Amino acid sequence: MTVRTERRGPSLLITLDRPERRNAVDGPAAEALGRAVAAAERDDEVSVVVITGAGGTFCAGNDLKALAAGELPPPSEDGPPPMNVTRVPASKPVIAAVEGYCFGGGFELALWCDLRVASTTAEFGVLNLGHGLPCLDGGTVRLARLIGQARALDLLLTARRVPAAEALTLGLVNHLVEPGRALPEALAWAERIAALPRPARQAARRSLLDQWSLSEADALRNETRLGLAALGRPS
């Protein structure tokens, strides 16, 4: 099984489980990841999704051996991206629990998440660019929105490895913990998030995510509309 799922209280834990390939994602793993996220979206008892990797590694990116063998579906504008889930925002908060390598498509998957909890073993980077492979999972879009254009260009144009301490300074990581503690900490964060009243929490998250394509005035109206809906009042 390349992707495992497990209920942990209010959270659905999704584990990339290909440790022999440092959890690099091939076609079947991408499909399994998509099914796991879709199941979390449908389950009203799941408040938060936590994504992690087995064997002390988050995800080394796309499986280059599978790619060379033609085993990954060819990318297209209308088809799913290599990591499957990254073109559509999740309706629920998603936390990445990162240990070890978080490169390429794995890095883009972590950027897709709302929050990133990492251990001091974590390393981040768009190493795929060094192999001539472009970003197709939202990395060039989300990275700049997260840390700013100048810092994003530094990481993109050098394709260098970013150690955990620097990632925290850049704002790539929300919280840094000791080795082996990323998942327990992420699950504790999930508990705190789930304890908030869902309508208000979801309205705040949706307003923040929606604002990027809106003018300030429209973003403020959207915040009001979502807030009133959370209160059960017509806008």
UniProtKB/TrEMBL annotation:
Gene3D superfamilies recorded:
2-enoyl-CoA Hydratase, Chain A, domain 1
* Matching Pfam families: ECH_1
Q: Which EC numbers characterise this protein's activity in its record?
A: 4.2.1.17
Q: Which InterPro entries match?
A: ClpP/crotonase-like_dom_sf, Enoyl-CoA_hyd/isom_CS, Enoyl-CoA_hydra/iso
Q: Does the keyword Protein transport apply?
A: no
Which GO-annotated molecular functions does the record name? enoyl-CoA hydratase activity
Could you list this entry's UniProt keywords, alphabetically sorted: Lyase
Per UniProt, the enzyme's principal EC class comes to lyase
Protein name in the entry: Enoyl-CoA hydratase
Whose protein is this, by species?
A: Actinomadura viridis
